[in-house]
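Key idea: predict the complex, not the pieces.
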Amino acid sequence: MKLYEMAKAPNPRRVRMFLAEKGLLDKVTRVEIDLAKGENLSTEFCNKNPMKKVPVLELDDGTCISETTAICRYFEEHYPDSPKLLGNNANEKAIIEQWTRWVDFYLFLPIGMGFQHTTDYFKHRMNPIKEWGESNIKAATEFFDFLNQHLQDKDYIAFGRLTAADINAFCSVDFGKVVNLRVTDAYPNLKQWYERMKALPSAKV
Amino acid sequence: MKLYEMAKAPNPRRVRMFLAEKGLLDKVTRVEIDLAKGENLSTEFCNKNPMKKVPVLELDDGTCISETTAICRYFEEHYPDSPKLLGNNANEKAIIEQWTRWVDFYLFLPIGMGFQHTTDYFKHRMNPIKEWGESNIKAATEFFDFLNQHLQDKDYIAFGRLTAADINAFCSVDFGKVVNLRVTDAYPNLKQWYERMKALPSAKV
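Result:
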């Protein structure tokens, strides 16, 4: 199987960290796609993912799967003996999915929008709207507060153990640095959790 | 179980249609929350969903689950004998999740942003940015094109049968009317699929 990614981008990192925690990282051959050079815009790549995003998982039969959580779901279901990170039962699966979506919509997406609309990084492909970017950075900051409150007296986001919710949140929190949003002492619970996550070997893959 | 919703909003509709197709609609007691009146901003509701959105599923033990797809996942996993709408195996589950996310990020979200930023509906709670709204309506229109192409010679989005991908897409396509995006003859394949979906009894619940 091939995993098309840009190593330093946050979504591919979420997949790698998920695979590392499951002991499945060696199941994929990593293929680097340079977004800055627009390699994701080629016809060949668009045939793999019409949305032009990384990561994409290409199975040996040529089937391509896009979207981080869909790729994670593939491995969770295909390797049932690996550590379960998306939940053990209906209730857990739903709560973990709720959290991964909260992180996607209220943290990851606002950070991405904040970055795209307050910098010139993608200006050759889009028209940045500074006011929109700033409103998103504010929203992401509010989610830092929310997460900090939620993590009071908790080692992990849900069910007292590491799940995909933590991996998703950790990679997204780390992504915050692109808009200068950092885990300072103003977020003591978040910081403790962040340091615990950062110390995992899977955080470095 | 209680399902907090606003009946005419598109995300609660996705949950109802999903439940109806599974024959599980009678499992929930529906509770109407009036977003226009700000009932979702009350402390009581925020304790159920800190993100202040509908739908929310409240289990009999008081556990609350937010996010449409997480609620759908709960029912899919909890009632394994009901028709499977999220896939029968790892490959199907991943592809259907890919599609529901594509629809969420490239159709539903842009329509919502387009509506919020080109109308005054939420102006007491946010600052609409018209340019951003228009850019999102353009993006949603492009996804109509993409979906129209994808549906050539296909009755359903994936695996030749009705899945959550179709339900998600149908409710999102219908939601397009709030930004005057409609399934015209310019989208013949989309239109055929749309009429097929619209004829389902579950489209009316």
